Structure prediction request, 365 residues.
Amino acid sequence: MPKTTISVIKADVGSFPGHSRTHPKLLEKAAKMLKEQRGKLLIDSFVTHCGDDLELIMTHTQGVDNINVHRLAWDVFMECTKIAKSMKLYGAGQDMLADAFSGNVKGLGPGVAEMEFEERASDPVLIFMADKTEPGAWNFFLYKIFADPFNTSGLVIDPSMRKGFVFEVHDLMEKRMIMFKCPEEIYSLLAYIGAPSRYVIKHVFTRDGEIAAASSTQRLSLIAGRYVGKDDPVMIVRSQSGFPAVGEVLEPFCTPVLVAGWMRGSHHGPFMPVGLCDANMTRFDGPPRVICFGFQICNGELIGPADMFDDVGFDRVRTRCNELADIIRSQGPFEPHRLSLEEMEYTTLPAVEKDLMARWAPIPE
Ligand code: 13P
Ligand code: 13P
Ligand code: MG
Ligand code: MG
Prediction:
């Protein structure tokens, strides 16, 4: 049996109204184009959206970074951009930062999370998709899932997990990476991932090198050199039998964490777990949201999805997120609701400053 690859590739290619949600016509087109590849390039596929981000979930045997799979995703986004433009949807082609495909969608705008593995007797996989935030938003949750015994009881009571996990952290500014073995290096890991705008967890592995989690890490502003919207990341997490249980993977989302993104990609706001029916951005273009689809992988087939946050068990965190949204919104344009000056360099603030530059005078001695 060849290894199975899961590729989750996403882009915002236009939405309605404003940055609120993907239009059904785009979802239909994308689903049709991927279904045409069933039994050819792909084994299976599923198309959905989180807010204005079009999410392509694909399974195949081509491995990660495969040129044909990436080209397919690119072509889907291009076709959907055409439809978005014909309807004058908002931000049509927003995340398509290149004119043409060049071997891999990485660096061209779309976000990518992929993993290849040998299927176990039973392979539960959880796919997280977010809108109105940045890739570093996953740092807190991946830490809790794979390194915090107060979250993941399996780290304490499951003999197959007691060795811990290895975290691959990327520095998005310096384009370098480092591996941290946990639990022994959790303090060093936290020193970096506590700064999620720059340091992001790309992969988590078992101590034997088996892939456990993968996330998308592109930052649109760093690629484009200007503000083009937030990156709205995706993440794949394997579960059970040596990995955290499904419920252990979901549990950290009961904490209302503040993340960067929300209105104009320039504000901190609570990261709210929701079912698909609530994955539409409204209040102040948010609040930032995350959906989670659960699948069993069976010879590459996607058995599912189960809409994991569509559950009363997450009602309380949603209420707390709304309370937090009220509190932080009342600060209006003041930090720390508004992002720090360093982060605002990647938004439209420099253009405002340029306007006012000539008006500044030295303070008299
Ligand atoms: P079951 O006994 O229902 O398989 O559950 C085991 C488990 O891992 C629960 O998290
Ligand atoms: P997106 O990054 O989801 O397109 O949102 C951009 C924005 O400006 C929201 O206010
Ligand atoms: Mg948008
Ligand atoms: Mg978006």
